[in-house]
Amino acid sequence: MPKSAQPGATKTMQEIYNAEDRAHAEKAIEAFAKTYGAMFPKAVAESTDNTEALLAFYDFPAEHWIHLRATNPIESTFSTVRLRTKVPCGAGSPAAALAMVFKLVESARARWRAITGAHLAALVRAGAKFETGVLVERSEAHAA
Fold this sequence. Notes:
- The protein is an all-alpha fold.
- Helix content is 56%, strand content 3%.
- It is flat, with a radius of gyration of 21 Å.
């Protein structure tokens, strides 16, 4: 996509990403495809081919969406470690490197944000179903 079209496309992609629920996100995807499909079919195909994976976070509790939308949580978690371990001399021995990484992660942990709705994580692990971020109660027919 040329640089001149990127600001508008970026805004449209952010509307998909920040939609209030799956239905609004799907409408935003359709609008993106309609607006840019004729001019940039390959770019639209790359962005819209796997919408199920793109919108999978809507199948989890709404409290968790902010964490699931994160673009690279692992990289941000270990950025402190990466910045301090890439030095010309190195850490010395493997044991010293492991100890240094442990202490860096331990000190960085104090700045990490706690998971919103942590009590819902047990329900997710147990296989509870969520629609638009709300827990779907099983009917009595399914429970028996």
